[in-house]
Amino acid sequence: MRSYFWFLLICLLISCAKSVEEKKTFSEEKTSTPSEETELSSQKRVDKKVKSNPVTQIKADPNELKSLPDATLVDITKYSDEFTLNIKYATSDNFLKTAVYDCAACYVRAPVAVALIKANNELMKLGYRLQFFDCYRPHSVQKKMWEIFPKPGYVANPRGGSIHNKGAAVDLTITTLEGLPIDMGSAYDHFGWESHHAYANLIDEVKQHRTLLKETMLAFDFKTIRTEWWHYNYVGGRRYPISDFKWNCTEDEE
Ligand SMILES: [Zn+2]
């Protein structure tokens, strides 16, 4: 009887050991399956990519804009990456034939940024997005532009300044969602009848593009000016002071 008891006990121990071994093998197989390994490491790569993406790191909550003091000048690209920038005055591809900005940036007053983000969201539902040619323009740059091209109607006299100097005017167009240009009937800063809102000798497609941009901007508290299809003033934007803040062109370079 005693030997039978020992026999049973030994059998039980062997069986337990075998079961543990099987479980171990199974779990090892499970973690070392090549396809899962690949998936796991590629997932790690994705996570790493997201974390190291500088655009993600600098992004701020657009709702924060509403709690900022009214006159805060903000870099709109820190609150939305849905716009594209084509800042002509940071290049020599403009009517002055020289760059007057050290680098491209789009700063506007906080409420102006809120309105632009809303307008862009509406346009994106229709397959378009906003592209900026010019936003806030420091007063010293206005003076520089006036020195190069002192012609009222082309450049605002720095004595009175421009709404651009107040951070409440934008020069912009619409592009496709992919950022491809769309025919607006005349180039940016083309100072001729073709750029006027009332100019009617345009093909229907161009008229539709201008109407879409205009109606969207008007719906989000912007006003047109008669002579430039690309220029919009924020309603009440004259209340802001003329500023000479200059954006840092090196802060994002590492
Ligand atoms: Zn303008």
UniProtKB/TrEMBL annotation:
Zn(2+) binds at residues 164, 171, 231. InterPro entries: A_A_dipeptidase, Zn_M74/Hedgehog-like. Binds 1 zinc ion per subunit. Residues 26-46 are annotated as: Disordered. The active site is at residue 228. Keywords: Cell wall biogenesis/degradation, Dipeptidase, Hydrolase, Metal-binding, Metalloprotease, Protease, Zinc. Its cofactor is Zn(2+). One of its GO terms (biological process) is cell wall organization. It is an enzyme of class 3 (hydrolase). HAMAP family: A_A_dipeptidase. Belongs to the peptidase M15D family. This is D-alanyl-D-alanine dipeptidase.
